[in-house]
Task: structure prediction
Amino acid sequence: MTRDEFDAYCKSLTATTNVVQWGGSSVWKVGGKIFTICSHWGPVDRDCISFKCTDHSYQVLCELPGVVPAPYLARAKWVQVQSNETLTDDDIKSYIEEAHAIIAAKLTKKQQRDLGLLPA
Result:
C-alpha cells in the first residue's frame, strides 16, 4: 500500500483527522487520538504502516515476517508493517479499520455521538 493509498483510505473512515508530524509521518486520529501512522521510523528505508491492534492480533502479527512491534508504541500493542509481501492491502485496511474502532471506543460516549460514531 502506498502512502497516498494509505491516506485516502484513512480519510474515508468516520471522523478522522490527519496531521503530518514527527519528521514527515502521516498521523491519523479519531477524536484527537492516534490510531495509525505511516512513517519512516525504524531500520527500513521506506514508508511503513503502524497501527494499534488487539492483544491477540498483536501476538499473531508479531510472529509474521515483515511485521514488528512498532517503534515507540509497542508497549501499547502497536505493530509496524515493514514488508509489502506480508499482508495484502485489504488485510492492512481491515487492521486499520479495527484500530480506528479500538481508539474510537475509548472516547467518551458524548465524543462518540458528537463525531457521528454513535447515533445521536
